[in-house]
């Protein structure tokens, strides 16, 4: 079976990339192929990278509080590109109260502080759409 | 610190203690771990004795506070004179709301202001820019023009308070706005006290709010040094920051090593720009993190002071002692706050604040319990401020200077951190300096490796985080978090268009064109930025002129 391909993305202007880099490395150690976008990606850039790299998963990390706008925007653009078979997950400083609406918008899971990399790896393996 | 005879007696007695007392005890009850490590992963011995500090000379290495090498503090009486500045970092939504929070903090005994700007402001975009969508007012206050700055400091006497502004790439613009607001209040620039962060190198390393490439960024910084040394002499022109390096996952020794390496780069840039070291070095300030490991942190602050003093004296041949004194602000470690059982964070913050005070900080921000979840509520901020007031007024830790000095452990640890930090600085020198080491990704890689190890230790339960991987409870969602209303973005856009219709657009264009010329040449850009700001040119307009001339920084994406 070909390895799971993941795009780890930093949408918006937030510069906190400790979590994103750490997860990228943990997923890679778990045998996945990981592409990391670097900072300050627009939803358009993230979707273009995901399509071009033919990934199975997009993981977005955001600690600035702009998730309610940026996460759903990525899902929307993916749908426009007919690329909504990509599993989308997110994480960061995200209040519990925001999670139902984000899931409703098509984010499969929101990983909040304290989640282990093992839990994320398990989630991805169980939920990829292929 | 002991003579040979005393030392050999101590050695003899220690060996006999090991044999007769320790080994018996270990045979009956072994220790819980093979090896004990600090938060930074450094090995911590069972016991420290005079043998561990035998080669440290008291007079030259430890000495007296307010005197080279400043190990014991930058000032002779420390908190007996006055307590540290209680400076709470705050800012959110609009200038109006942030102004209210500042007035509240001052009324509650906060002694300095500290402004948090939102991300678009920090990256030089106006609130109506496409990339600002979703971010306006979120992590700090949105400032688009002098108009917002006037509101932000309305009713706050700028000749009385000192203000720290966490602003880097567009630091010159925000400083100019501050000078302009003060002028309107009738306060001359030479009376202003405060700090701009203005530390671009750590933005490339760890914090991410860069705009311009390294070279023009360093020029902006040295322009500010030069301008302030003449016009705003009481202003701290840079806050060389280890805080974010530590937050990104570094160890304590890396925090010191990488921060001082950045400091060296700024001093070199200023000297190369023709400035005399003793004209600008006294206005350099530092900003450190205070993490969980109490003793390691105290040792870290002491090591940083000693090492910087040596660097300024030996490497840069500073003559004034003021150029050798490392003074610093501290913030408790945001990365140690847990979303789980958030009230526990009050205890973590208290311990970290204690470390900062025992380490001799000049000012302190204590984090609020709810910051792993959102921006803090007024109630949470009040508890955080009260934590400092309890430390200053009730615990007695302020009664004597550098109370932990002379502890075998603290002195050995101070030396160890100084040596490790110096190793990093030497390595960075070999790579060609901090800017080059950043381009090569060396510093970022070192930090990521440390961050990864730390996380794996938490996941393997080698490192316990209370409420996260041990002592867990089922919890409901936290209630009453602070939320920034998305309407803020609309309000800011409206203010921008009002400003643009009420100002003289002709004057703005003229000042921006002068700025463009200054950027293309070698003139100091500060006076031109000040001129543009006074005509209500927006932050975005000013930063765009510099983008045109300077270009933008491209981050090396490394894993």
Automatic annotation (TrEMBL), chain A:
<keyword id="KW-0846">Cobalamin</keyword>
<dbReference type="GO" id="GO:0016853">
    <property type="term" value="F:isomerase activity"/>
</dbReference>
<dbReference type="InterPro" id="IPR006158">
    <property type="entry name" value="Cobalamin-bd"/>
</dbReference>
<dbReference type="InterPro" id="IPR036724">
    <property type="entry name" value="Cobalamin-bd_sf"/>
</dbReference>
<dbReference type="Pfam" id="PF02310">
    <property type="entry name" value="B12-binding"/>
</dbReference>
<protein>
    <submittedName>
        <fullName>Cobalamin B12-binding domain-containing protein</fullName>
    </submittedName>
</protein>
<keyword id="KW-0479">Metal-binding</keyword>
<keyword id="KW-0413">Isomerase</keyword>
<dbReference type="GO" id="GO:0031419">
    <property type="term" value="F:cobalamin binding"/>
</dbReference>
<dbReference type="InterPro" id="IPR006159">
    <property type="entry name" value="Acid_CoA_mut_C"/>
</dbReference>
<keyword id="KW-0170">Cobalt</keyword>
<dbReference type="GO" id="GO:0046872">
    <property type="term" value="F:metal ion binding"/>
</dbReference>
<feature type="domain" description="B12-binding">
    <location>
        <begin position="3"/>
        <end position="130"/>
    </location>
</feature>
From TrEMBL, chain B:
<feature type="domain" description="Methylmalonyl-CoA mutase alpha/beta chain catalytic">
    <location>
        <begin position="38"/>
        <end position="552"/>
    </location>
</feature>
<dbReference type="InterPro" id="IPR016176">
    <property type="entry name" value="Cbl-dep_enz_cat"/>
</dbReference>
<dbReference type="GO" id="GO:0031419">
    <property type="term" value="F:cobalamin binding"/>
</dbReference>
<dbReference type="Pfam" id="PF01642">
    <property type="entry name" value="MM_CoA_mutase"/>
</dbReference>
<dbReference type="InterPro" id="IPR006098">
    <property type="entry name" value="MMCoA_mutase_a_cat"/>
</dbReference>
<protein>
    <submittedName>
        <fullName>Methylmalonyl-CoA mutase family protein</fullName>
    </submittedName>
</protein>
<keyword id="KW-0413">Isomerase</keyword>
<dbReference type="InterPro" id="IPR006099">
    <property type="entry name" value="MeMalonylCoA_mutase_a/b_cat"/>
</dbReference>
<dbReference type="GO" id="GO:0004494">
    <property type="term" value="F:methylmalonyl-CoA mutase activity"/>
</dbReference>
């Amino acid at each position: 079976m070909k390895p799971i391909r993941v795009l780890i993305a930093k949408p918006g202007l937030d510069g906190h990339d400790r979590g994103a880099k750490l997860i990228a490395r943990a997923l890679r150690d778990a045998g996945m192929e990981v592409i990391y976008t670097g900072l300050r990606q627009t939803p358009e850039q993230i979707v273009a990278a995901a399509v071009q790299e033919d990934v199975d998963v997009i993981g977005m990390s955001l600690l600035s509080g702009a998730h309610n706008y940026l996460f759903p925007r990525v899902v929307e653009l993916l749908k426009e590109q007919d690329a909504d078979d990509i599993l989308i997950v997110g994480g960061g400083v995200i209040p519990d109260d925001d999670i139902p609406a984000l899931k409703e918008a098509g984010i499969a899971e929101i990983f909040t502080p304290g989640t282990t990399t093992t839990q994320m790896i398990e989630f991805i393996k169980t939920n990829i759409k292929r | 610190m002991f003579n040979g005879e005393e030392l050999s007696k101590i050695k003899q007695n220690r060996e006999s203690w090991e044999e007769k007392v320790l080994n018996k005890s270990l045979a009956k009850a072994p220790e819980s771990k093979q090896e004990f490590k600090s938060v930074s992963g450094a090995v911590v011995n069972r016991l420290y004795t005079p043998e561990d500090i035998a080669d440290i000379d008291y007079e030259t290495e430890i000495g007296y506070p307010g005197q080279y090498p400043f190990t014991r503090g930058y000032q002779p009486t420390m908190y007996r004179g006055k307590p540290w500045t209680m400076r709470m970092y705050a800012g959110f939504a609009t200038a109006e709301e942030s102004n209210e929070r500042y007035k509240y903090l001052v009324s509650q005994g906060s002694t300095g202001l500290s402004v948090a700007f939102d991300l678009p402001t920090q990256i030089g975009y106006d609130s109506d820019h496409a990339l600002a969508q979703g971010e306006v007012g979120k992590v700090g206050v949105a400032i688009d023009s002098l108009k917002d700055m006037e509101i932000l400091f309305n009713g706050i006497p700028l000749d009385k308070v000192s203000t720290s502004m966490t602003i880097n790439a567009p630091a010159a613009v925000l400083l100019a706005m501050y000078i302009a607001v003060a002028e309107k209040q009738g306060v001359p620039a030479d009376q202003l006290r405060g700090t701009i962060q203005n530390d671009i190198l750590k933005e490339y390393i760890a914090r991410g709010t860069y705009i311009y490439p390294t070279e023009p960024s360093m020029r902006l910084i040295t322009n500010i040094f030069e301008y302030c040394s003449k016009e705003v002499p009481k202003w701290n022109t840079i806050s060389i920051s280890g805080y974010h390096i530590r937050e990104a996952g570094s160890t304590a020794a890396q925090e010191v090593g990488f921060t001082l390496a950045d400091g060296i780069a700024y001093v070199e840039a200023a000297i190369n720009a023709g400035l005399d070291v003793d004209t600008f070095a006294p206005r350099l300030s530092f900003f450190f993190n205070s993490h969980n490991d109490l003793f390691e942190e105290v040792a870290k602050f002491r090591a940083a002071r000693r090492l910087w003093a040596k660097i300024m004296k030996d490497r840069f041949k500073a003559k004034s002692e003021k150029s050798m004194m490392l003074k610093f602000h501290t913030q408790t470690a945001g990365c140690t706050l847990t979303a789980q059982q958030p009230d526990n964070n009050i205890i973590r913050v208290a311990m970290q604040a204690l470390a900062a005070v025992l380490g001799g900080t000049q000012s302190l921000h204590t984090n609020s319990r709810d910051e792993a979840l959102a921006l803090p509520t007024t109630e949470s901020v009040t508890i955080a401020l009260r934590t400092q007031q309890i430390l200053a007024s009730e615990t007695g830790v302020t009664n004597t200077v550098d109370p932990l000095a002379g502890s075998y452990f603290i002195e050995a640890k101070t030396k160890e951190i100084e040596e490790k930090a110096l190793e990093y600085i030497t390595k960075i020198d070999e790579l060609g300096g901090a800017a080059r080491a950043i381009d090569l990704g060396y510093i970022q890689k070192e930090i990521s490796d440390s961050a990864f190890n730390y996380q794996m230790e938490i996941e393997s339960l080698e490192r316990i985080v209370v409420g996260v991987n041990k002592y867990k409870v089922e919890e409901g969602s936290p209630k009453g978090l602070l939320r920034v209303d998305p309407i803020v973005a609309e309000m800011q856009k409206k203010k921008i268009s009002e400003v643009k219709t009420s100002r003289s657009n002709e004057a703005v264009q003229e000042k921006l064109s002068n700025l463009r010329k200054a950027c293309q040449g070698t003139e100091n850009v500060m006076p031109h930025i000040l001129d543009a700001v006074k005509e209500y040119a927006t932050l975005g307009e000013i930063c765009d002129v510099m983008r045109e001339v300077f270009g933008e920084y491209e981050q090396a994406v490394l894993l």
